[in-house]
Specification:
elongated; about 20% strand; alpha+beta; 3 domains; 5-stranded mixed beta sheet; Heat Shock Protein 90; Beta-Lactamase
Length: about 375
């Protein structure tokens, strides 16, 4: 009788140990998921939080277990930004019954939040948060390509329809110019011709933004390319009160590019930097730093200014066709630049803070 009891007890202990091992195993898996997880019981008390979620909240895990939502919001280490996000998440998912919600943190990263509750959770509430920034970038790139493809179709259909009458108007104005000169109105003809030329330039940019010509590549030195771009920009920079500083790299670097196209991109970036500095004020001492450094199989060309900078909303639309904040801008310069660098198997990254300047980084493949 005693031996049977001991055997039963031993089996129970083994079963308990086995259950604990399985529990510890699955808890360890949950702890190290790349998604953040929080579990609230039916009374709204936090019973489980994994490492990733604690990292996202920037609060130690041990200080959160046992808190309800109100205590969590009053936590001394929780930032005001995150408090607002948690309240909005509560409103969207609990009050408005939305199972999924997308939010952006203070660092500009995108997160998809999902809440699960009901009969399958036996009264508990499971909140999961996944970083979807990379998927968002892919989505935005696809959206950008769709817009450029649509722009190409529009441009192909209207370019000739606009250019033909402009050419005719330009020809007739030139024929009338001697008569206007006799009347002392030659200034009118000059203005009309310059505006027609500007319209033609806009159409040219419009066409190039959707489909730039195929790159005619030659191997060139990055150092000579940057020196030439700076040389072409120096006089305008001086007139606008800007200083262009070129930092030469000790490493010789060559790239295979269409020199005309990439030079157009560099000049466009430098001009944008000058315009951003000009926005600050005429007495402001503007500086544009240009450098190039190798990064694996690529070279990173950095153009940094101390101008007006941009907010996150503007950064998100920077490469959109026709998006511009300039009074006389077409909104096509950066769109064209983006497509040119992509055609060279490169990339453009930008980082900016409102009031603190902007950094553009152009990455191009190096020639071995």
């Amino acid at each position: 009788m005693l031996s049977e009891f001991q055997e039963t007890l031993l089996q129970s202990v083994k079963a308990y140990q086995s259950t604990q091992l399985v529990k510890n195993k699955y808890e360890n898996i949950l702890q190290h998921l790349d998604s953040g997880i929080m579990l609230f019981d039916s009374d709204g008390v936090l019973t489980f939080i994994n490492v990733q979620m604690a990292r996202l909240l920037e609060i130690p895990r041990h200080s959160l277990i046992g808190c309800n939502l109100l205590q969590l919001l009053r936590h001394p280490h929780l930032s005001r930004f995150k408090k607002r996000k948690i309240l909005r998440l509560y409103r969207e998912t609990i009050l408005f019954r939305k199972k999924n919600h997308e939010l952006v943190d203070e660092y500009g990263r995108y997160y998809l939040t999902t809440i699960t509750y009901g009969d399958q959770m036996e009264g508990d509430y499971l909140l999961s948060v996944k970083d979807v920034s990379e998927f968002k970038q892919i989505e935005q790139a696809a959206y950008q390509n769709d817009k450029l493809a649509m722009l190409g179709k529009i441009s192909a259909s209207i370019a000739h329809e606009i250019r033909n009458p402009l050419t005719a108007i330009r020809g007739f104005i030139q024929l009338l110019r001697p008569h206007l000169l006799q009347l002392g109105k030659d200034e009118y003809a000059r203005i009309i011709l310059s505006e027609i030329d500007r319209a033609n330039d806009i159409i040219y940019e419009f066409l190039n933004s959707s489909k730039p010509t195929a790159p005619q590549k030659v191997v060139v030195s990055i150092a000579s390319l940057l020196k030439e771009a700076v040389l072409l920009s120096e006089s305008e920079a001086l007139m606008k009160g800007c200083e262009i500083r070129l930092k030469e790299s000790a490493t010789p670097m060559n790239v295979s590019i269409d020199v005309k196209q990439v030079k157009q991109v560099l000049l466009n970036m430098i001009k944008n930097a000058m315009d951003a500095i000009e926005e600050v004020g005429s007495d402001y001492s503007g500086v544009i730093d240009i450098s190039a450094e190798p990064d694996g199989k690529y070279v990173n060309i950095t153009i940094q200014d101390n101008g007006n900078g941009m907010d996150k909303a503007m950064l998100g639309r920077l490469f959109d066709p026709f998006f511009t904040t300039k009074e006389k801008g077409t909104g096509l310069g950066l769109s064209v630049s983006y497509r040119i660098i992509k055609n060279h198997r490169g990339n453009i990254n930008v980082d900016s803070v409102k009031g603190s300047g902007t950094i553009f980084v152009i990455s191009l493949p190096l020639v071995p």
